[in-house]
């Protein structure tokens, strides 16, 4: 038997059903016995939504009102009545089992499953298998319209059935017409058989999806993983995720859609911390297209952006692995927990003892994976397998408990995160680099970036994230002729993506004032953009990472003492950058100058360095922002090539930074540590210079920026 099911929400109707997250307000159904071609009673039930504010389209199409819905039952009770009434109708027809049949995928996948998930109740088994009448109709009548273009009305017209919707109440006509279509498909001319229902996965299956070889670690990364291919039509990128979200949370957000096994890959930054994005791989392109309709749906109080992604991007995140990781992830349906902050001397026995008998690890020691650097030193991270959710929850209760003298952080994790973290440590560089390219000497060009207090610039705030230079120029209209050459500067976030801000240098303060008056709150695409007049000094401040608000200017992170990331072997040709902008990047702005008896009273010329991509940075300045406390990052600057440093040293007596490799960073120091204790710690090693100015204590402001305990930098 089939149960023909039709529904409507308080919002969009038709092809956009469920795309606006509105709740279900109507269910209509009827049992159809296929062998005897008999039908049960037709049932119509209103559903009380939490939000009874109906859209104009809903009121017009359905004829329902908020007052009428206010007297209805909530969804969970309506579904209980649905099960009882269907069972009664089946008993009358002499049947016991049934499968749902709906007009397309949307009602089941995009409405019922997401709403039940948000309201924390389970759907009965019948909602995990259903027939899509549009697909069945196209199979029976191959010459009919494509599946995506089918509707109940077009199917009825193709068969010559009556299509006057005004004769019946909304929902009743739809179900009666669907039943008539099914009987036409069962007629002697067609003899259609319903054999392959659509399936909705009960739960997301974790685990590594790649077929792994038993080759060496490095060979596996280069050869095995990268030879795999992923269909780009099945992958999406979810952005704006809570930092604590796990793969199961993401699967719940896409409830009703079938995610491929191991198809959730949480993206990490260069420090191995989650960056609020994930790549999700679905079983086919149809499921991916439905996922894109959940753009800006909510996970808790946050809306999630959903965009198309490529198979290559997914492989970069989920593709790298090793034999050790493959063996660790070979156990199916395990819950993975990540431990962070372990003592470097911690053993497997220590970790098992810390977790205790209330949360046994799968396979004992085999269920532990310590993350190590290429030289074998521990990183303080480990991954643990648990056989069920109960054990994992018990483990998470130990978050920030003490092991040895350190507190341990515990988080939910995924198979893709295991692969990324381990591979990142092994390769010593991130899978997806976020650091600048090597820093090289700068040559002043003919163009200059404005400085000073003259308010000849404008700031654009609230730009669409997809907006580019052309969109800004179109937005400016006739005022584009008053923009200085190379005067458009996009502000990017730390991941290199648009932050929604931009600065524009105008030819005069009057022109900037006129643009601010004319374009303020003017629409660009689907958003209004705020336009403010500002000075070149304020613009440079924000481009350097500072903030500009009603309270005034907040210092940019580049004004703080910062550390150098790993150096690079190859250097590119010199880039060109305005001299005024180069003045902002003097080495003295990064680290305090070392006292030297040879220093002359007159300040000698300095050598300025900036990444090679600054050749394009006339329109693309990067502003670095600190990550939330859950996922801290550090802001770094790359040292200049040794040859450039030597040339600068020969040209001036001014003290310069050490060559790459001459800096070490100390973390985890006691808060009362002084210079004497650090010098004692490094006894036997040569440090520079003799007056101990090589020790640079990070200020409180820098520590809050780096979100780390008391630290020193030693030269």
From TrEMBL:
Q: What is this protein called?
A: Epithelial splicing regulatory protein 2
Swiss-Prot/TrEMBL GO biological process terms: mRNA processing; RNA splicing
Q: Which residues form the RRM domain?
A: 234-311, 335-415
Any coiled-coil regions, as ranges: none
Q: Which domain of life is it from?
A: Eukaryota
> Which Gene Ontology CC terms are recorded?
nucleus
Question: Where is this protein chiefly located?
Answer: nucleus
Q: Does the keyword Ubl conjugation apply?
A: no
What UniProt keywords apply to this chain's record, in alphabetical order?
Answer: mRNA processing, mRNA splicing, Nucleus, Repeat, RNA-binding
Q: Which family does it belong to?
A: Belongs to the ESRP family.
- Subcellular location(s) of the protein: Nucleus
- State a single Gene Ontology molecular function: RNA binding
